[in-house]
Amino acid sequence: MFLDQFHRVEDGRVRITAEQASRFAKQMAGDYNPIHDPDARRFCVPGDLLFSLLLAKFGLSQCMTIRFCGMVGNDVPLIFEALDAPDENGVSLLVRDEAGKVYLTVERSGDTTHDEEVVANFTRQYIAFSGRNFPHFLQPLMLEKGVMFNPARPLVIYDSMGFCFERLDIADLHLDFVGSSLEVNGKRGDTLLEFSIHDGEQCIGSGSKKLVVSGLRDYCAETMDAFVESFEALKREAEA
Description:
Elements: E1 8-10, E2 13-15, H1 18-29, H2 47-58, E3 60-68, E4 78-82, E5 93-97, E6 102-113, H3 116-130, H4 133-145, E7 147-148, E8 156-165, E9 173-185, E10 188-199, E11 202-213, E12 217-218, H5 221-239
Antiparallel strand pairs: 1-2, 3-6, 3-8, 4-5, 5-6, 7-12, 8-11, 9-10, 10-11
Helix pairs in contact: 2-3
InterPro entries: DUF3581 (IPR021974)
Pfam family, one: DUF3581
Organism: Cobetia amphilecti
């Protein structure tokens, strides 16, 4: 399983080191958000890694809504739990620590597939799409709205994502970017990234991802251009 190198299981608990999390972000998603660097002061495990491990354990359902409730630190013992019945909020799956702190919740409905090829293919496709947050999607939106994050502390937080399939018998799955938007409210911005799901040429579903950008300030082209160039240089160096 391609996720094996990014976690380990001890005494029934999933553990992810900062180094594993950082490798996942860079190698699988092309995500160089400093918050995933092992030595970051506010380091956190990528939400997409938690989501990917959850799909591998519980399967891919036709409709799923995932909400990220907290930031997972280095090597935290995690419990991936399926509730006997959905709670009052419709949550049926969750990721928590041993103290009961919840980091991720899932509402799901419809059929569920455990076909390893289908689940792994969707996982890879979504990770690739999701990892393009910056600069591909976010930078043009910030330019359009005349705002940007603090380049010294670019705080972009994964809030939620969701999708629905018409069916799960898929032979040639791929995701396409549909559109994006940024709603600015003071120093906070809510970003929505939308995608369609295809089996070959046929559209069989859709989904979206929400990000929260904090510490917004007036856009400075010179500063942002330098930040983007630094980001791209790190990516080129890692891929060399």
